[in-house]
Write a structure and sequence with these properties.
The protein has helices at 2-11, 15-39, 43-56, 59-66, 72-82, 88-107, 110-141, 149-159, 161-205. The chain is mainly alpha-helical and 206 residues long. It has one domain (2-205). Helix 3 (43-56) packs antiparallel against helix 4 and helix 4 (59-66) packs antiparallel against helix 5. The longest helix is centred in the C-terminal third of the chain and has 45 residues, at 161-205.
């Protein structure tokens, strides 16, 4: 803990916004992981079970099935089952609206994580530039401009701490953003597939 505080002090004032944004980014990552874990389900088995119930005309069983969990696909199928008597065109519009709503839920917070990934290296660079400016100001203020290499090296490595800190936060943020984006694509594909499945069942079963 002492070393961590020392590094912050050596890094200068830019270390504080870097740390604050890292906390924000970590909070987004944790919240998104929790949401994705809660909202994802393998679409294949769920579609098969629902298809069997619709084939049998078991409306009550279908209603129970789509209320078992709070995944995005369960919510999509729940809206379809609750409005099963609606005309195909109206049901299609409802499903499209539900898909958009669910994708919005999956994308929530990612713009903030992307901003953290972009801003952190810039803050680190700003801190380094300010540190180097301070080093050379101190060198210029030294009697007759005399300064040994040890003094310069010490000042420059301290100035570089903010760049290191910014990159340490930005790299995982970029990786998490990329992984989350791939999960969103998978969720969108599952929801569109689920919507097509419901419309196909509606046409077949009436």
């Amino acid at each position: 803990m002492k070393n961590f505080v020392l590094i912050i002090e050596l890094g200068g004032p830019c270390m504080y916004p870097i740390i604050a944004l890292s906390i924000v980014g970590l909070a987004v990552v944790i919240e998104r992981l929790w949401f994705y874990r809660k909202s994802w389900v393998n679409p294949g088995p769920l579609e098969r079970k629902l298809g069997e119930l619709l084939y049998k005309g078991d409306a009550e069983g279908a209603s129970r099935l789509v209320r078992e969990r709070e995944t995005s696909l369960h919510r999509l199928f729940r809206a379809a089952v609750d409005h099963w008597q609606a005309p195909p065109d109206a049901l299609k519009m409802l499903l499209e609206q539900e898909v958009r709503h669910e994708i919005y839920r999956w994308e929530k917070g990612l713009m903030l994580l992307s901003a953290v990934a972009r801003v952190e290296p810039l803050l680190g660079l700003l801190g380094t530039v300010l540190g180097i400016v301070e080093v050379f100001r101190a060198v210029a203020a030294t009697a007759e401009g005399s300064a040994n290499m040890a003094m310069l090296a010490s000042g420059i490595w301290e100035a570089l701490l903010t760049t290191v800190a910014g990159l340490v936060v930005a790299i995982p943020a970029v990786l998490c953003y990329t992984w989350f984006s791939s999960k969103i694509e998978a969720a969108e594909e599952a929801l569109c597939r689920g919507s097509d499945f419901i419309l196909r069942e509606k046409i077949l079963r009436g």
